[in-house]
Amino acid sequence: MIDFENKNFFKLKQNADYADKVRELLIDGEDIIDAYKSMRDGVVFTTARIIAVNVQGMTGSKKDFTSLPYKNIVAYSVETSGTFDLDAELQVYFSALGMVKFEFTGSTEILEISRHIAKHTL
C-alpha cells in the first residue's frame, strides 16, 4: 500500500493512457472519469473510487494498487485553476487514513471528479 503519510502529495498531469493500468480492476458498471500521471506513479478516478498506482522496482513491472472508495471520504476540498495559477488541487479526507492531497497541472476534470465525490458522500 502507498504510504500516504510520507507521500500524501501527488503532482499530476492528465494522461488518458494511464487508465489502462487499472482497467482490469474495475467492477461492472464502474467507469473511468480521468487518469493522471506523475513521474512513474499515477491516479485514476472512476465513478466509484480513486485508484492510486505505485510503480515499483527498476523495470516498473511491479505495481501496487490502492483503492480509495468515495464512500470512505468524510470531507474534501477543491481548488480550481485560475488565470495565473494554472494548477488545480483536491484535498480528500478519508476515515481512518487521513488527508490525501492531489495537485493537477494542465487540463483536469476536477469539477467532474468533485461531482462524483459529492454523489457518494452527501
UniProtKB/TrEMBL annotation:
Residue ranges of every copy of the Bacterial Pleckstrin homology domain listed in the record: 14-120
Superkingdom of source: Bacteria
InterPro entries assigned: PHb, PHb_sf
CDD domains linked to this entry: PH-like_bacteria (cd13225)
A Pfam entry, by short name: bPH_1
Alphabetized PANTHER family for the sequence: BHLH DOMAIN-CONTAINING PROTEIN (PTHR35796:SF3), HYPOTHETICAL CYTOSOLIC PROTEIN (PTHR35796)
Name this protein carries in UniProt: Bacterial Pleckstrin homology domain-containing protein
Organism per entry: Pseudohongiella nitratireducens
